[in-house]
């Protein structure tokens, strides 16, 4: 009797398949077997690419004479510590009674690669091979995936892309790491007072290193520019007492300062004395009043955000829970394996049309989850989910492998055994998901323009009128219910205010006028009644000093987003358009790349804040690469390679074309490094970087930057 073999990526997933298929046969060593079927598993990767010495013993010794290393045919070998499981899987794949193999590794490029390598080394022939492509590990989804499994050959392009990605990382890593280590390693080791130093270089990791180091050096080189804003403390007549608020002066047309060189932008001055002169002018002619020159009221609509992909979720977890992208991925992977959420390694932020038709099942399941039960019941009762397919939250064209991360509505029995952090992440996913079935949040916005002595002040007020989706999405909604008073121009990114000490009305032009507490109701009533021409009291004028601020350091979360959107950082417009939507790395690999950079001490991570800074060793590697293979530091190269892999996966480019370009690039850059004679000029760069590190922090002087 013929049997079907199901091969999963790990034992826990294999167990899910066995349960869904009702396979309750005997459990062997590394597999489960019944009369009709067998379920087995990999343990992640079972096979890897061989080291160069497997091709020829001469490659074991790092030597300029053996570079560039470009094998005609690549060799692979079983990973030593999992060789037992490989032999078990190999035997099962080739059993005479197995006629159909169901590939159940993770549904993505990496999962495909894991199986293809195993099948390649196992010598699988004359077997029907079918690919199971699923978005969650619920029983329903597993059975659907098996029922709709396609011939494995339909994923050959994806497989080719996976092989090429591995070859690319392999060739760049070996050739560039060896060439740079042989050329610059002795100089670096001498500087660090080490016996030797190995430079680790890679297609993605070196680009990420470049982004962090460049940002750090921008911060170091930044020169702050002070500026001075004039603020008026106004009082509007009201009962039982006047309502106070603040407004900001702005140099509009008609102002004595309009278009003058004294201005820092249009709402501040370069020098304090100019701000003081303005205040003196405005105080010169009592009474201290101002007229309402204009009033505007309008609604602002804020729609629910798109659903989570992995990068967005990792970024939010970094901000909310101060965990690294690697930790966030582990949490959401566990939720996936417990059937609670859909496949996590996705770049999509929308649902598919097919999923949208059945989305009521996901919502219905959440009626059994306490924190979300009320919202889920409300959505089902209102029927708001029925039209979701016609919204921006459903778009088949924006999905490559998998749709967004959403709760399945199943697996809630696992909640009791989840760590507190895992439940928090699960709730964040649930809130984002349920929010798309709610209407937009609506704000009321008031804008005031006030005039005194032909000089104008501006104030904006914003109040949440209808919470809409914020009711479910925002755990701190209470904070949003108050009136938000803003000055005409909030300091933009790169600028910040520094408040000064207190002052008295009518006193010197220093200090911040005290601001009386005012109720939301009183402020709204005042704004509603206020009309053009009304006269208000100008109780005080004061200066708010600010300064330009440097760019922010990357956090672990913002770096993941920067990696995902690296194509946007490319300066060349034509190239940027060409690789629009491409990032560096993939959703499956970005967290691991960051983790490696921390582990090899190229970057440092503050675990409390998740802020990333370079380490001295990382800066030295940056300077070496910058003076040898500069392209590796820039996102345009890495993103263009990633786009090329996408073309192969889509079938619009051939593996041979890609490989030819890759070999030319690797060979050309390796030979250039060998020919260079600049290694002894690197000390000046090392000295410049070392000035920002504590030489007493360790033998290798690779402490974190003084700047936090």
Give your account of this protein's structure.
The chain has 708 residues and is α+β, with helices and mostly antiparallel strands. It has four domains: 3-148, Rossmann fold; 163-221 and 552-690, Topoisomerase I, domain 2, CATH 1.10.460.10; 226-303 and 441-548, Topoisomerase I, domain 3; 310-435, Topoisomerase I, domain 4 (Orthogonal Bundle), CATH 1.10.290. The strands form four sheets. Strands 2-3-4-1-7-8-9 form a seven-stranded mixed β-sheet. Strands 10-11-14-13-12-17 form a six-stranded antiparallel beta barrel. A two-stranded antiparallel ribbon has the order 5-6. The chain is flat and about 100 Å long.
List keywords for this structure.
Rossmann fold; 4 domains; Topoisomerase I, domain 3; 708 residues; alpha+beta; 39% helix; single chain
């Amino acid at each position: 009797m013929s049997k079907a073999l199901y091969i999963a990526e790990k034992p826990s997933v294999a167990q899910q398949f066995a349960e869904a298929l009702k396979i309750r046969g005997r459990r062997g060593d590394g597999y489960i077997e019944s009369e009709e079927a067998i379920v087995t598993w990999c343990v992640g990767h079972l096979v890897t690419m061989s080291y160069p010495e497997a091709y020829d013993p001469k490659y074991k010794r790092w030597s300029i004479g053996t570079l560039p290393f470009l094998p005609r045919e690549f060799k692979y070998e079983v990973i030593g510590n999992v060789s037992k499981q490989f032999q078990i899987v190999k035997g099962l794949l080739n059993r005479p009674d197995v006629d159909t193999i169901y590939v159940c590794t993770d549904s993505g490029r990496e999962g495909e690669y894991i199986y293809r390598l195993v099948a390649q080394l196992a010598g699988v022939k004359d077997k029907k091979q079918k690919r199971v492509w699923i978005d969650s590990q619920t029983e329903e989804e597993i059975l659907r995936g098996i029922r709709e499994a396609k011939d494995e050959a339909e994923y050959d392009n994806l497989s080719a892309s996976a092989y090429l990605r591995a070859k690319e990382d392999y060739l760049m890593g070996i050739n560039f790491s060896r060439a740079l280590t042989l050329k610059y390693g002795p100089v670096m080791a001498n500087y660090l007072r080490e016996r030797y130093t190995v430079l680790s270089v890679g297609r993605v990791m070196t680009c990420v290193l470049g982004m962090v180091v460049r940002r750090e050096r921008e911060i170091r080189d930044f020169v702050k520019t002070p500026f001075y804003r004039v603020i008026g403390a106004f009082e509007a007549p009201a009962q039982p007492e006047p309502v106070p608020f603040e407004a900001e002066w702005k140099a509009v047309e008609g102002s004595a300062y309009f278009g003058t060189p004294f201005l820092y932008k249009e709402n501040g001055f370069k020098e304090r004395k100019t701000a003081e002169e303005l205040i003196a002018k405005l105080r010169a002619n009592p009474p201290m009043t101002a007229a309402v020159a204009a009033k505007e009221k309008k609604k602002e609509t804020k729609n629910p955000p798109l659903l989570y992909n992995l990068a967005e979720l990792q970024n939010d977890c970094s901000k909310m829970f101060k965990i690294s992208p690697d930790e966030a991925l582990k949490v959401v992977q566990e939720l996936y394996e417990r059937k609670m959420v859909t496949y996590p390694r996705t770049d999509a932020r929308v649902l598919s049309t097919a999923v949208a038709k059945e989305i009521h099942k996901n919502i219905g399941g959440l009626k059994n989850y306490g924190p979300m039960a009320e919202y889920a019941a409300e959505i089902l009762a209102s029927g708001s989910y029925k039209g979701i397919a016609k919204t921006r939250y459903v778009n088949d064209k924006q999905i490559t492998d998998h749709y967004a991360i959403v709760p399945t509505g199943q697996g809630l029995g696992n909640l009791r055994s989840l760590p507190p952090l895992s439940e928090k992440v699960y709730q964040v996913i649930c809130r984002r998901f349920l929010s798309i079935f709610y209407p937009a949040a609506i704000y009321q916005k008031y804008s005031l323009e006030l005039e005194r002595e032909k000089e104008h002040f501006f104030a904006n007020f914003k109040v949440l009128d209808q919470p809409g989706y914020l009711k479910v999405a925002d755990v701190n909604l209470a904070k949003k219910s108050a009136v938000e008073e803003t000055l005409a121009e909030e300091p933009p990114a790169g600028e910040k205010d520094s408040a000064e000490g207190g002052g008295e009305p009518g006193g010197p032009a220093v200090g911040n006028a005290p601001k009386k507490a005012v109720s939301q109701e009183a402020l709204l009533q005042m704004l509603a009644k206020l009309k053009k021409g009304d006269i208000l009291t100008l109780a005080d004028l004061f200066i708010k000093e600010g300064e330009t601020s440097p760019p922010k350091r990357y956090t672990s979360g913002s770096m993941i987003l920067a990696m995902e959107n690296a194509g946007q950082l490319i300066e060349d417009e034509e190239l940027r358009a060409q690789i629009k939507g491409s990032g560096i790395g993939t959703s499956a690999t970005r967290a691991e790349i960051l983790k490696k950079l921390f582990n090899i001490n190229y970057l440092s991570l503050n675990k409390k804040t998740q802020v990333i800074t370079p380490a001295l060793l990382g800066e030295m590697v940056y300077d070496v690469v910058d003076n040898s293979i500069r392209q590796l530091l820039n996102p345009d190269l890495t993103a263009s390679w990633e786009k090329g892999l996408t073309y192969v996966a889509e079938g619009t480019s051939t593996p041979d074309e890609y490989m030819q370009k890759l070999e030319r690039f690797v060979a050309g850059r390796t030979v250039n490094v060998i020919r260079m004679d600049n290694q002894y000029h690197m000390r000046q760069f090392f000295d410049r970087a070392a000035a920002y590190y504590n030489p007493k922090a360790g033998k290798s002087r690779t402490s974190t930057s003084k700047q936090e």
